[in-house]
Amino acid sequence: MNEFSVVGKPVLKVDSLSLACGSAFFTADFTVKDPLFLAFFYSPHAHAEITAIDDSPARAMEGVVDVFHSGNTSSGLFTTAGQGYPEPSPYDTRLFNKTVRYAGDIVGAVLAESDKTARAAARAIAVEYTLLLPLFDPEKAMDGDVPRIHGEDEYAPLPVAYRPEQNIAGEVLFSFGNVEKGFTEADFIEEETYNTHCTSHCAMEPHAATASFDEHGRLVIYSSTQVPFHARRIVSMTTGIPLHRIRVVKPRIGGGFGSKQEVILEPYVALAAWKHKRNVRAELTRREVFTTVRTRHAMRVRVKSGFKKDGTITALQMDDLMNTGAYGAHALTVLSNAASKVLPMFNKIPNMAFTGHAVYTTLPVGGAYRGYGATQGYFAFNQHVDAICRKVGADFVEYVKKWHIREGETSEVFRAIGEGTEGVSQIVRSCKLTECLDRGAEEIRWNELRGKRLRSGSVVKGVGAAVSMQGSGIAMVDMGSASMKMNDDGSFNLFAGATDIGTGSDTILSQIAAERLGISVEMIVILSSDTDLTPFDTGAYASSTTYISGQAVLRCAEKIGEQLLSTASSMTGAPVGNLSIGKGGKVINSADGSEIPFSEIACYSMYSRNQFQIQAQASFFGEESPPPFMAHFAEVDVDMETGRVRVVKFVSAGDCGQPINPVLALGQIEGATLNGISYALTEQYLFDAKGKMTNNSFWDYKIYGSLDIPEVKAILAESSEPSGPYGAKSISEIGINGPAPAIANAIFDAVGIRLRELPMTPEKVLAAIKAKAGR
């Protein structure tokens, strides 16, 4: 591996001190003069037509300034999905819809002098509805005799499969080889159905947005967003405010995990502020986040495979049905990822087919969530592989090592499907999955525990494994930009459009720039995510920041380096070929060993001759998406009397190329792992018969807390990705893909039951144990 000065080192996060001291500004911390407050009122029904709205009780309340709803405010169709333009998600919603499509759908908003008044007024508004038939079962969504959730003039901006008359928000179909022929060649056929559920992102910071005005009368929106540039565009589209009159600023963010890739609050605060020419604030409560923002898409995955006695898979067929809920935000792209990030793993299968449909229902809306479809697909894929291994008497770890995609190889799936678009052919240039499997198996004591079913009273121990791959940005879609300028003292301002949502990307990008210029991170002053000051970046999603934005920063720093050498040559008369950038912020002349500090070069360029400021800008457009790889291992104890599953230890061994900051990379793995364990065992949305969520608080919606955390071991198997900055690729999402299937496989290893539905609660485990005993 290369020796670096800054890259690969556990540099302290650039915002760590401010976060630790509580001085970092989050969206709700920004104070604006004399603000108005926006509160929403929502549909109590899963499906209904609004026939009348009486807002007079609210308008009569002291302190109420305005009320917005479909009766007095119109907007064009749009999608809340903050994606590249034109978005692959259908334009199927308005700011205020006349038809409500789930319990929690926004009906209107009240603007008042205080948040308390706004919320009280929102409760006072009387809305009359004509109830429509709901649709809760995605399996019936495409039937001919069920309600049509959308229609009218909704449309998809891209030429993709969008058929609202069939409740289809997105469709993905591809195949290669001859699947039926592959099945006839098989010795065994395995066909099973797996079901994953919708869950909440549970970011610590609820959604918030503040709209104010600068001295020129331009609208400034402070927002907890992952996509400031997309937010600006969508605000302009929905409100009619000229885009050049809008500035979006992203402060510190208390977690996103995909939920803040949605543009939810920004159009509403912009609309109210622009109309009344006053500052406006909005912040959702936790209950509102649960019911009104976005969830992970629930998905039914049916897998059928044919394989020989030696384990060779002759054909694999996957059929996914995804519940997108009331609106189609991210419907096509999440569905695409359930195939494009999963099926290339076993690239030696000659015959493969995928059928995927994202369907509308009258339930909360699915959206972007860490893992983005791969999580759902891998829950099925890894259990299916485990079942094949047990059928043919193979060890899961050794079997995967034999069949997984490797360096120098490709997959037909890469070409067949991307994220809502045609795929991009690519070759895997870095893959240490075999090393990840070996190191993870050793750490979990795989050979000692696998199949032993060690028992202590009613508790039985088992181990399970899973593997996954993801991506680094969206090939031929994502781009990032960066600019830099040099200061008198030899420091640099780095302006990055990339959005740090708590992942540490500000630190990572600073390290990349510092490495190229031979200086410490302290000499890089970074400013990110301000649509007025920083260059364009598609945003923090698709595991893109280190790879896409990092390459933009590296290219920008290289241009700065060229200017440094050119200026030093002008200062000294030395040929540029004799000059190089040394460590510690200086240019070195190889001819005589003399050194010129950056500070002298900066002052010369700005004050001495032919004055100019050393500065540069660069962009990077990803033409491929190098996958990170990970092996996941779970050790569990299953209580035969209660069905309780306790994760004793979890090991996640990942290949992210060259880690720019290994401590932050390990932290990403650990966080995603715990996120995935919680998703697997405890989290779930509960609905009543009318489609209303009944557990929209942390009191009833169980996520893992500090007392639940098992021993977690994160391992980095370093590789070098030739297309990435200093050999780096992504790591932030992939860790969530493995806990659910690894735990499910471990449960089977312990007690011989196969859990194919999430979450794997004690009730489900105990019922399966009893059913097995009954048989």
Detailed description of the structure:
This protein is of the alpha+beta class. The protein folds into three domains: 16-24 and 479-621, Aldehyde oxidase/xanthine dehydrogenase, molybdopterin binding domain (Aldehyde Oxidoreductase, domain 4); 32-132 and 207-283, Aldehyde Oxidoreductase, domain 3 (Alpha-Beta Complex); 377-469 and 626-774, Aldehyde Oxidoreductase, domain 4 (2-Layer Sandwich), CATH 3.30.365.10. It has 19 helices and 27 strands. The strands form six sheets. It has a seven-stranded mixed beta sheet. β21 (579-582) and β22 (586-589) form a beta hairpin. It starts with 15 loop residues before the first helix and ends with a helix. The model has no long low-confidence stretch (mean pLDDT 96).
Helix and strand topology:
Layout: H1 16-21, E1 36-42, E2 48-54, H2 56-59, E3 64-69, E4 99-100, E5 106-112, H3 115-124, E6 126-131, E7 168-176, H4 179-184, E8 188-196, E9 208-213, E10 219-223, H5 228-239, E11 246-249, H6 266-276, E12 280-283, H7 286-292, E13 298-307, E14 313-325, H8 331-340, E15 352-360, H9 374-392, H10 396-403, H11 412-416, H12 433-444, H13 446-449, E16 455-456, E17 459-469, E18 479-486, E19 492-496, H14 505-517, E20 524-528, H15 545-572, E21 579-582, E22 586-589, E23 595-597, H16 598-608, E24 615-621, E25 629-639, E26 645-655, H17 662-681, E27 711-716, H18 739-751, H19 762-774
Parallel strand pairs: 1-12, 10-11, 14-15, 19-20, 26-27
Antiparallel strand pairs: 1-5, 2-4, 2-6, 3-5, 7-15, 8-13, 9-10, 9-12, 13-14, 16-17, 17-25, 18-19, 18-24, 21-22, 22-23, 25-26
